[in-house]
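Troubleshooting: if your tokenizer reports a length mismatch, compare your output against this known-good record of 514 residues.
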Amino acid sequence: MTTAQTQSLSVMLRRSAARHGTKPALVFREQRWSYAEFDVIVDELAAGLDDLGVVKGDRIAILARNSHYFLAIRFAVARIGAVLVPINVMLGAADIAYILEHSGARFMFVDAGLVELARTASSAVSTTIEATFLVESDDGDSPSGLRRWTDLCIVGATIDDRAEADDLLQIIYTSGTESRPKGAMLSHAAVLWQYQSCLFDCGWTADTVILHALPLFHCAALDAMAGPALQAGATSIISASAAPDQVIPLIERHRVTAFFAPPTVWISFLRSPLFEAHYISSLAKGYYGASIMPVAVIEELSERIPGLRLWNLYGQTEIAPVATVLQPEDHATRRGSAGRPALHVQTRVVDEEMRDVAPGEIGEIVHRSPQLLSGYWRQPELSETVFAGGWFHSGDLATIDADGFITVVDRKKDMIKTGGENVSSREVEEAIYAHPHVSEVAVIGLPDPHWIEAVTAFVVKRAGTDPNAEDLEAHCATHLSGFKRPKRFVFVDDLPRNASGKILKRDLRRMVPG
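Known-good structure output:
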């Protein structure tokens, strides 16, 4: 530690350990770590990394599913001032190789079940991954040839916190729904400012028992949920899967009070036959984000889980990630809104000349905040572009009302231009979701010789129902203007999505020939 004013993620954990001691911090399967135990394990692993030769600024990749081990590695890397590079486990070897090469990762941690994928990716990297360590699972024997992360730990060792607030904490690669992933650089300070916003705006307390089921390699689970939970002194239950048959019994078993998921997971939760079979009245705080929650689903959640208070968290990787929050008390009158800026965020909705749009008009969301990324790793030109005019340009289109509530309309790339008119895919999706036989829907524009782009809806039917295109056309006729109605309905078993729950509309375009 170099100054008395030092602030870092590692220091944050030390403070929580001092405050909460023997209180459970992390629970994974049958194993529990108290706050004090967790901090000791982080020290021992950090000392082992130091002994290995890891220095401040080194990039360390992790390719692993959820566990308490993931968070131990995350905090140990931060403690010695190295930089974590979380990698999406759903990526193929070529995409993983790109991230390893682009980030210049020196070491890597990998799940037992992902070793061969990691080896294939590493073999395609021109620079050398000096060593790969196993993040062992609790499911039987681990493959030979790799040292376990626990082998690095130096029992009884302590180590100084080496990072300062402005040092780089992590490089998180965006989901790449448009092109090659971009590495968003986030400092210790940016992430900790964001934790403060979450603590203030999302009802965190030391009494909270939260279930983390979304992947920790994604910023929403890692920094909107796990990080603030550890700062608040809450107890974190970790699940390796977000499947309803895993999540619902865990809520009952641990008397979970808080849960975060994208709309797709909440929908699967509601549709599960286990929903009525388990006692989940402890669930008091529900957080959703990653994509827009249909109003019909919000209403169903409120009806079927009495006492559940809902928060809508809107943001993106580049703002660490929470930018705006719709509070529970605002859901009754502003369902569908993304809320107002979080504690440490200033947000505007602007036109192409950076002028504030009038209430109800569509513009781009821009932000100023200490939570923002420092830039994109090895992409200075792109970094300059997104900060044009002194504001971060989100790429999201929205309206804003007189009270400052923002409603996200679309990504710029998802606005459909049909017959000379602009159509918001979200507006069409909301209308179709209101049909009682629709479980999920995604709307895109597809090339059309007459309309230029034809509004096209991909629909997942609700179990036990069999709506046809004529049913949905009649329904849309009562909810949408003529030019906004889908020209085609495509019925599918499920919608393609990435690990964070976002629907991959680029994949939908590939599903339709021609």
